[in-house]
Amino acid sequence: MTIFTSTSTPRQVMTVQGLLPYQELGITDAHNHMWIEPEQGADPGSPVLNQFNLICKELVEYRKKGGETLLDCQPEGSGRDGNKLLALSKESGVNLIACTGFHRKKYYSPDHWFWKANPQKISDFLCSELEQGLYETLNTPIPVKAGFIKIALESTWAACPKPALEGAASAALKLKTLLEIHTEKGCLAEKAYVYFIDLGLIPEQLVFCHMDKRPDASLHKELASQGVLLEYDTFYRPKYNPAGNLWPLIEQMVGAGLSDHVTLATDMAEAEHYHFIGGGAGLSSLPGEIQKNLIDKNFPETARTQMLGGNIAHRLAGIK
Ligand SMILES: [Zn+2]
Q1: Which of 7, 105, 295, 298 has its CA 20 to 30 A from that of 126?
Q2: 81: CA distance to ligand 1 center in Å?
Q3: How many domains does the chain have?
Q4: Could you tell me if residue 146 is inside a domain?
Q5: 0.85 exceeded by the pTM?
Q6: Sign of the alpha-carbon torsion through 245, 248, 249, 250
Q7: Could you list the residue range(s) of the whole structural domain that residue 194 is in?
Q8: 37 CA to centre of ligand 1 in angstroms
Q9: In whole angstroms, what is the distance from residue 157 CA to residue 80 CA?
């Protein structure tokens, strides 16, 4: 087992309530959204998730079904509130892991400082959210720290914010942090892979999100065999035909011996997907129905454990 931290032992994982050994994360949703404040000036279609009691109820349901941890993928400036994440975690008993980084430009007020900053300033800000605490929690008795970096690619390379990509790479390199990368339906994954490796990151630091929207098994196998982690989350998005695309893709990856390079999530940024808000499948579908389907489809227990949290826990702990 090789470690990508500078120490010889795995790192503990930073949750909103503090450090936890990676072995204690349990079933973990690798990409979700637990709180999104409306942002003035952002695209009017941007999702909002701010019904505290209902979100809390949803998290309690997640725990009842056997889920223990979720990664929140909303960075500062796009509606994140680390104080709410902390309160939700305390009240529901679920581990939440907050992020620093950046989302797609459309989720921000157009005059947000981030888009005018140089890579150094961006890297310093990301490092400070990982080391000192999330910006909005700095004036609280125990600031909430970010546990990973989440960034977003646009649909073309020309449209991607280069200073922000460079700043995020530099922060991830400096602190040996995991980098979750939103892709627009899987676009640019191979381009971004080369970009980040050229900047000195190692494949095991990279998680490419929403890759099942581009269910090209040979591309997935190629990226996975390089060492990156692929995140799949279209279980409840009929327009992507999960029965015809996502489930066969999981079968192919597990069949190829690459179950240690796949991580599952439900990415429910829209309130309609929440069970107690919009009547959707809800957060508890990962430990519930999705886990049940994995069992019914006879996926080996090792593969299930890896894809339902083991892999993302290892990556957060800096284990290859
Ligand atoms: Zn998301």
Answers
A1: 7
A2: 15
A3: 1
A4: yes
A5: yes
A6: positive
A7: 13-210+273-316
A8: 15
A9: 26
